[in-house]
Amino acid sequence: MSEQDREREEFLRVARTARDAAAGLAPLPRAAKDAALHAIADALVDGAARIVKANETDVARARENGTPEYMIDRLSLSAERIAAIAEAVREVAALPDPVGETVRGNVLPNGLELRQVRVPLGVVGIIYEGRPNVTVDAAALCLKSGNVAMLRGSSSAYESNSVLVTVMQEALRGTDVPADAVQLVPGTSRDSVKHLMRARGLVDVLIPRGGASLINSVVEESTVPVIETGVGNCSVYVDAAADLDTALDILVNSKTQRPSVCNAAETFLVHADVADEFVPRALAALKEKGVTVHGDERIRSFDGDVVEATEDDWYAEYLSLDIAARVVGSLDDAVAHIRRYGSGHTEAIVTTSQSAARRFTALVDSAAVMVNASTRFTDGGEFGFGAEIGISTQKLHARGPMGLPELTSTKYVVTGDGHLRGA
Amino acid sequence: MSEQDREREEFLRVARTARDAAAGLAPLPRAAKDAALHAIADALVDGAARIVKANETDVARARENGTPEYMIDRLSLSAERIAAIAEAVREVAALPDPVGETVRGNVLPNGLELRQVRVPLGVVGIIYEGRPNVTVDAAALCLKSGNVAMLRGSSSAYESNSVLVTVMQEALRGTDVPADAVQLVPGTSRDSVKHLMRARGLVDVLIPRGGASLINSVVEESTVPVIETGVGNCSVYVDAAADLDTALDILVNSKTQRPSVCNAAETFLVHADVADEFVPRALAALKEKGVTVHGDERIRSFDGDVVEATEDDWYAEYLSLDIAARVVGSLDDAVAHIRRYGSGHTEAIVTTSQSAARRFTALVDSAAVMVNASTRFTDGGEFGFGAEIGISTQKLHARGPMGLPELTSTKYVVTGDGHLRGA
């Protein structure tokens, strides 16, 4: 057997184990799942030294490879960070259990009782980058929602992830939850991702968490259904009827409060009627925060430091202190710009006009539309979901921040007393 | 330009037209959509002669090709059938509009108003077989839910479908709904399906309606998200605690009331404790209805006419007067059989035991689980949805009968008065 075949066999073995564990996990009541989550949290704290030691191997290799310092920081674990990760697991335990919730229910005219109830998805594959905290977060959210997690983190964190999963599995052995309910995809090769993407029938959904290129390649190659997450080219539109102080605050907050995340603004659009008054103030405020503005001709006419915007800038998810800027002739022109270049994540309008707010929210087709609020609010925590597995930018199944209910499907339970169909 | 390139260009032109139409259709209120549906219904009745003429071309070609009579029947249109199709369009107009419904809403601790509202999916691609009534049904359901339909029917019905779409587009010209809101995928080649499956970014979802091989090939090749529909290997489990008269009625109804549809039973499982009493009665009743039973050794011991069941029989979706039959040692064995061989559509238990019903509904992971009712009830009409675009057998987005709400996504509308994020 070739090395490739061997790896594929090993993947299938793990995936079938996951499938069986899913059958055992799905019907467990909340108390059993919460007890298991607390056991995991305890085991992480107890195993901190062992986890840190494995992590040091990953970190040392990353340094040898010349990995940039901000990525080393994401990769690094300490006893303190592990304690925080364990605390997050306890917070997941405290959330309500979505499984079993009756989504709708009624008695049909013929007397059949119809109930649509939430059930786990089954086996959830998660593909993510070099942040070992995601290994635990994702496993905890999946477990709470009755799903088995098949985790495929970055190869740069493989040692850390292996130990984290081992510690979690060991913790589960003393609980009612099957130890196999948390699984690491074996191997670090490119093929191991491929196996996961082709495991239709064994894996129920794939959630890639990472940059646009990772997500695109998963969508292209996967036969398992995919939930796209997290690419955000968000925009702030300053309407003709905006309160300009409010607009300035929202623009600066949306761009600079945390520029590296998907709900940070990457574009601002300003109505021509207020451009002369607003743009100079905006450019000054952004400059003060260290932001480089990539503007159209009109924006550039206000300040020689504005860089010329190219077509690529309108599409860009900078994730840095850069923003694209354009003057538009109308609200509808702003909507047309967003429709063409946006990623469907979050768009904000700043306006005092009720009719402008109504039209913008009706016409903009994004996961979240903000009226007089920062784009940074699109977040499971801010929305009160208690936890978030990602922010979906697709329209099927889940859109926007995904909490525990978004990790479930439903089934219909129909109860009769010998009902037969006539026609 | 090669013929292939030309066809691809033509497809992209139509798809972009559909995308633009979707932007115009999405914000329209119910009254505009209902008026358009009534205009379509009127136009179908008025255009019946023209539609029947085009249909005659398809039917004549199908006869030349030696198409079986039951398929010719599905393909054929008459003035009477067209009137019934038009009536179904009026019934869709009478259904509530799912778009704009607030799915959840609350005020966050910081005063932000959060609303999750239903919005159309956008452009919905439908791939289906030689039933021209689906052309109109699917277009009407999409239009009512604010979606543009991109229709790709069987090439055998291309003339009929072309005229039906033309008649619908002409009808829309006198309404507020864009005429391009109903589109036929151009061409009849295999490539034209491929273009649809690769139109990610232009088409929001694909719904294949047809046999397992069509659905599998779409899932394999599509980069557009797919909703799988309609493959049903449904089973009836007769529990040790079943009322056997009820069990007999449900088994016969599930199998024979309409054998050609996806919610007909294809397997029956009977608990060993009642096999001696139940199986002979079941075999006699099924024989009387002309059903061929494919049984395991125990079932065959009751009647020499029972055919030996192979592994393939347990997986089979016969859609005919055939059924696979097996004696199981326990309810859990029945569940294990279903988990291994079922298609996740509908399973029924017949039992008088509350605990057996509770365990079966908890453990069986199918779109619908019936207790003391025929599998034939899994149907959008029976469930009171008023209409059905298909029955989803996948877990993502929609599961079970899909009505109008299942043709929508949601977006979050968040309203503040200058809210900024602090941390």
UniProtKB/TrEMBL annotation, chains A, B:
Pathway: Amino-acid biosynthesis; L-proline biosynthesis; L-glutamate 5-semialdehyde from L-glutamate: step 2/2. Keywords: Amino-acid biosynthesis, Cytoplasm, NADP, Oxidoreductase, Proline biosynthesis. Residues 7-289 form the Aldehyde dehydrogenase domain. InterPro entries: Ald_DH/histidinol_DH (IPR016161), Ald_DH_C (IPR016163), Ald_DH_N (IPR016162), Aldehyde_DH_dom (IPR015590), G-glutamylP_reductase_CS (IPR020593), Glu-5-SA_DH (IPR012134), GPR_dom (IPR000965). It catalyses: L-glutamate 5-semialdehyde + phosphate + NADP(+) = L-glutamyl 5-phosphate + NADPH + H(+). CDD domains: ALDH_F18-19_ProA-GPR. One of its GO terms (molecular function) is glutamate-5-semialdehyde dehydrogenase activity. Transmembrane segments: none annotated. It holds the Pfam family Aldedh. It comes from the Bacteria. Its EC number is 1.2.1.41. Signal peptide: none annotated. It is found in: Cytoplasm. Its main location: cytoplasm. It is an enzyme of class 1 (oxidoreductase). Catalyzes the NADPH-dependent reduction of L-glutamate 5-phosphate into L-glutamate 5-semialdehyde and phosphate. The product spontaneously undergoes cyclization to form 1-pyrroline-5-carboxylate. Belongs to the gamma-glutamyl phosphate reductase family. HAMAP family: ProA. This is Gamma-glutamyl phosphate reductase. It comes from Actinomadura sediminis. The gene is proA.
